[in-house]
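Sorry to interrupt, but I need a hand with the structure work. It will help me judge whether the discrete encoding reads sensibly. Write everything out right here, beneath this request:
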Amino acid sequence: MDLHSQNILDQYNALMPLFKEIESVVPSKLKAAFDEAGIIVAAVESRVKTQGSLEGKLELKGSKYKDIFDITDIVGIRVITFYIDDVDKVASILERHFDIDWENSVDKRKAHEIDSFGYLSLHYICRIPEQAYSDPEHPEVNRIRFEVQMRTVLQHAWANMNHDTGYKSGVEVPREYLRNLNRLAGMLELADEQFSRIRTELTEYRRRVQNLVASGNLSEVPLDGDSFRSYLKLDPFGPLTRKIAAVNQAEIQEVSLMNWLPVFKGMGFTTLGDIAALIKQYGEAAYQIACYQIGITDLDIVSAAVTPQDLCIAYALKNGGGKAGIRHIFDLLNGPSEGHDMLAEMLLEQSQDLPFMNQ
């Protein structure tokens, strides 16, 4: 190693505490920024280039660098995202929080080689601005540049696999294996694109469902987890629950009603309109059942789940389900149990003389 390269190596060793400081500060700030922006990433990795690696780099092109500050990848950060479009969101976060050296940054995603999939990272060369973080004893911390690579999980996996099979062995990969590797790269690239497309379509679907629910077009909304969750925000069972609680002037214990979704689906309901019709057509019957259940007690707390429960019981009884229909409700709700047989028999007996059974 020549004297110039040795001087750079000496600078590297002298600045190692600052490299370690940057390696700690940058991922911490990125994670906080991602949390604030609601961006979920697979991983944030960091490393400081080893002395051996730097020596190898200086031996090849040490004359290219004036000093240690000319080397931009001593500290390396890698942000691994789940989706392609999140790479640009991560880049936007970096642009807001760090100074970007645009001249030395590179967007490798613009490559068009057939075997480039695993290397389609977006690379930013950055500095920490003083307003974001400073170390009065070591102002060099704001002068040191570092590299941030942004890529997807699949790109990251491919790069690692391709590196292992194509380079680490030191043996040229036979042409037929390269062809298979490139075919696999194409499949992974397609998968990456489809994952992002599916997420976009699901987001659009949820937005459309929310608009339909808000506008009251419930018969057009399929009954599923997203639509039912949006529907519950309208408190569709609330009026009946409050009417039931008023029987004993009871307090309502709010509980999640999402576990009633498989019950409604298991009973054959397919749209939110079906649930709205259930409430409208069987609300009075459900109220009669609830009045009988709690009217002779001194209960002062009523679970919000009483409303969908008694609506389903009323529906089963009015449609000839009988004891088996009631048991089916509780099997759907809690899983099959012999105890549900006794519960169904008791509820059937209690309901026999209620007015709605004779209408």
About this structure: The chain has two domains: 3-169, 235-358.
